Amino acid sequence: MLRKVKGAGVALAAPGHGEVPARGGKPAVRVEGAPPELLLFLYGRRAAARVEVTGPAEAVAALDATDLGI
């Protein structure tokens, strides 16, 4: 689902479950939330997902510009 992200890497983090590098690249964005919230985010339901996106501004902008989902 993250193959469409251009110009940034993405790591998914769930408290108590660890962190997974989901898309390689630099600069990298970290998306943190509970596993169900991460799924909502990845399926394009950004407004409904309770996640925290952190990282360099250009990487966050690259992720924001990507149409996620299937």
Distance from first to last alpha carbon: 7 Å
Mean pLDDT: 94
Coarse shape? globular
Query: How many beta-strand segments?
Result: 4
Number of domains: 1
β-strand percent reads 25-35%
- Helical content (DSSP H or I, runs of 4+): 10-25%
Structural class: alpha+beta
The major pleated sheet works out as: 4 strands, mixed
Given as residue ranges, the uncertain stretches (5+ residues, pLDDT < 50) are: none
User: Strands of the biggest beta sheet: in what spatial order?
Assistant: 2-1-3-4
Q: What integer value in Å does the Rg equal?
A: 11 Å
Number of helices: 2
Order of helices and strands: EEEHEH
Quick recap:
With 70 residues, the chain is of the alpha+beta class.
What does this structure look like?
The chain has 70 residues and is an alpha+beta fold. The protein has one domain (9-62). Helix content is 23%, strand content 29%. It has helices at residues 35-42, 57-64, and strands at residues 9-14, 18-23, 28-32, 52-54. Strands 2-1-3-4 form a four-stranded mixed beta sheet. The longest helix has 8 residues, at 35-42. The mean pLDDT is 94.
How would the blueprint of this fold be written?
Layout: E1 9-14, E2 18-23, E3 28-32, H1 35-42, E4 52-54, H2 57-64
Parallel strand pairs: 1-3
Antiparallel strand pairs: 1-2, 3-4
List keywords for this structure.
70 residues, alpha+beta, four-stranded mixed beta sheet, 2 helices, globular
